[in-house]
Design goal:
It is built from four helices and five strands. The chain is globular. The termini are far apart. It has a single domain, classed as Nuclear Transport Factor 2, Chain: A.
Length: about 160
């Protein structure tokens, strides 16, 4: 009788904290995405946005599913533009809040409003508005969330304004 013996190695991340921070998370529920994204915004770290934007691999699979013809460089360009746009918007918001001495960490969420829509190609999206309060001051975060292959992601149009 011959015994089969196998040896395997467990893959270890070289830097688990950094590697897991760059991995996108897929959200089935828009409310969960909104809560997670708001928590990331409060950390005031531009790199955290990467987890909420579809990566190139996911965009390719979406284009394949929808039978959209594409070139590899178009997908990469689209993803990078989405990412850079959000980072640029957040950078402006952080500079403005610093200039006006608004501490984003001390703002409390009062209400979250979702305005769902669908375009002519039946793509779902939602304008998310998070109304916040800090003592007597009221403000709101706004952004566009998009649904790709039944998963929610942050789109663009990130803004922060005092009311």
């Amino acid at each position: 009788m011959i015994a089969n013996t196998g040896f395997s190695q467990l893959y270890e991340l070289k830097n688990p904290a950094r590697d897991s921070a760059n991995r996108i998370r897929l959200y089935d529920d828009l409310e969960e995405l909104a809560d997670s994204f708001y928590s990331a915004l409060l950390k005031e770290d531009l790199t955290l946005i990467k987890k909420f934007v579809p990566d190139v691999k996911f965009l390719k699979s979406t284009f394949d599913t929808l039978a959209i013809e594409y070139r590899e460089d178009q997908v990469i360009y689209r993803q990078q533009m989405l990412m850079r746009g959000l980072q640029k918007d957040l950078h402006k918001i952080l500079k403005k809040s610093e200039k006006e001495k608004v501490n984003l960490q001390k703002i409390e969420v009062k209400n979250t409003h979702f305005e769902y829509g669908m375009d002519e190609k039946d793509n779902e999206y939602c304008y998310v508005t998070i109304q916040c309060k800090r003592r007597k001051h009221e403000c709101q975060w706004k952004y566009l969330a998009i649904k790709l292959n039944d998963k929610w992601f942050i789109g663009d149009e990130l803004s922060f304004e005092e009311l």
